[in-house]
Amino acid sequence: MLSEINLRIDAFNNSDGFLILKYSIIIPTLNEEKLLPSLLLSLINPSLRSKYPYEVIVSDGGSTDSTLAIAEKYSDKVVRYLPGETRTIAACRSKGAKCAMGDNLLFINSDVRIDLESLLSASESEFVTSNYVAMTCPVRCLPELATVRDSIFSAVVNSYYFLSNSIGLGIARGELQMIKRRVYDNVDGYNEEIVVGEDYELFTRIRRLGRVLFCRKLIVYESPRRYHSWGYLRTVLTWLSTSMGPWFRKKSSYKDWEAIR
Prior knowledge:
Blueprint: H1 2-10, E1 23-29, H2 36-43, H3 46-51, E2 54-60, H4 67-74, E3 77-79, H5 89-98, E4 104-108, E5 112-113, H6 116-126, E6 134-136, E7 139-141, H7 148-166, E8 176-180, H8 181-186, H9 198-206, E9 212-214, E10 220-222, H10 225-230, H11 232-249
Parallel strand pairs: 1-2, 1-4, 2-3, 6-9, 7-10
Antiparallel strand pairs: 4-8, 5-10, 6-8
Helix pairs in contact: 2-4
């Protein structure tokens, strides 16, 4: 499968032999063998790739399960963690971006489900040629796993993000962040030292360059595993703590982040 995908990407060489890619989809991973296959398989779409040339990059943080084998099979590029390197999700996102060739960087988490065609179509019509510097969208829990409380919680959080972006605060969750490459490079990308809250911190710098589009016509679905494991109160308090640290002290409030699989 990997060779087939690479062949499709090679078809986008221009007359000078340079690879033309409009989007780079970057996925940070750590022991995601359960959820990663379905996400990567949903991104394999030859007709969609020919319409919106894109590449899929998996950037791993040191998985010990079959994540890397899955990534090698179904993605275009795999960035591996090396002993001694910074081991944060911010570093994974950053390293993925460093080998990306697209004009627009799409960062998504490995436990999400997206309608890629709707996403890229909305990007073409509302983001790529606009003055917006970045784009995000509402996040909901996977319908087959969501409880009523999950749905209420998601609705409240999405309303907060919509209002925040409407008044120019420019925030976005790591489940989906699309950033124009020139903007990403201008702010030097993610701070690799931040353990948690790297998504918030990046957007505090990005919003100084322009507005962030909160595209309400799109939805990205996430696993509710952390909500169900931690509960809503702990989740909200942790979010507040992780966002305040990067905003005010330019460093994370946490030295480590509990992985829930």
